[in-house]
Design brief:
The structure holds two protein chains of two kinds. Chain A is mostly beta strands. Chain A contains no helices and eleven strands. The chains are: A mainly beta, B mainly beta.
C-alpha cells in the first residue's frame, strides 16, 4: 500500500520561503507523476504543480513565478518550495500521486501558517 | 485558469440519489475525458472516487457514478448513506499540462 507523508515547518514568516517534503513509502517514486495541492482553511482545493519521476515539471500559472518542485528518486521524496509567502498562502498542503490524470494516493496533509 | 463551477450544496434522504454538476469550458472539462471526482470528509485528505469521467478505482462502491455532457461533468451518488455526507470536488485536465479543481459541493444526508 503506497503511503505519502508531508513534512516541514508549520509556521513560516511573511516574505520567506515555504519548504515541504513528501516521502513516499510502500512503492517506488519511479514511473509516476507527483503533485502538490493546497487547501486554505474552509476553502476548496488548488493544484500547485507536478513533477514526473524523470524531472519534467508543470506549475499552476497563477503560482508559477514563486513555485519550485524537485524530486530525489534515491530517497523516494519530492519537495515543494514556495517563495515570498503571504497570509494568503496559509493552507493545508497535500502531496499526491498521479498515475495519469487523477490523484489516487494522498498524504494526510500538513497545515502551514504564514504569520510573523 | 478559473476553478470549475460546482453547486455549493446538495442534499438527499438515505436511499435517494443526488447528482452534483461540475461546469467548465471547452478548454478543460469539455476538451478532454479527464475529469475526476473526490470525496473529502472533515479533517481528512480527499479520496479518489471517479477518474477519466466514469471509471471507478478498485474499492469504490458502484453507488458512485460519473458522466459528462458538453462542458459539464456530473457525479451521481445512488442509495445515499450517512457516510456519504462529505465535501465533493471535481478536477479536470486543463491543457498545457495544467489541472484545475472545482469549487466543491457539500452533500448533506437528511
Amino acid at each position: 500500500q503506497v503511503q505519502l507523508q508531508e513534512s516541514g515547518p508549520g509556521l513560516v514568516k511573511p516574505s520567506e520561503t515555504l519548504s515541504l517534503t513528501c516521502t513516499v513509502s510502500g512503492g517506488s517514486i519511479s514511473g509516476y507523476y507527483w503533485s502538490w495541492i493546497r487547501q486554505p482553511p474552509g476553502k476548496g482545493l488548488e493544484w500547485i504543480g507536478y513533477i514526473y519521476y524523470s524531472g519534467s515539471i508543470s506549475y499552476n500559472p497563477s503560482l508559477k513565478s514563486r513555485v519550485t518542485i524537485s524530486i530525489d528518486t534515491s530517497k523516494n521524496q519530492f519537495s515543494l518550495k514556495l517563495s515570498s509567502v503571504t497570509a494568503a498562502d496559509t493552507a493545508v498542503y497535500y502531496c499526491a500521486r498521479m498515475p495519469t490524470t487523477s490523484f489516487d494516493y494522498w498524504g494526510q496533509g500538513t497545515l502551514v501558517t504564514v504569520s510573523s | 485558469q478559473s476553478a470549475l463551477t460546482q453547486p455549493p450544496s446538495a442534499s438527499g434522504s438515505p436511499g435517494q440519489s443526488v447528482t452534483i454538476s461540475c461546469t467548465g469550458t471547452s478548454s478543460d472539462v469539455g476538451g478532454y475525458n479527464y475529469v475526476s471526482w473526490y470525496q473529502q470528509h472533515p479533517g481528512k485528505a480527499p479520496k479518489l472516487l471517479i477518474y477519466e469521467v466514469s471509471k471507478r478505482p478498485s474499492g469504490v462502491p458502484d453507488r458512485f457514478s460519473g458522466s459528462m455532457s458538453g462542458d459539464t461533468a456530473s457525479l451521481t451518488v445512488s442509495g445515499l448513506q450517512a457516510e456519504d455526507e462529505a465535501d465533493y470536488y471535481c478536477s479536470s485536465y486543463a491543457g498545457s499540462n495544467d489541472y484545475v479543481f472545482g469549487t466543491g459541493t457539500k452533500v448533506t444526508v437528511l
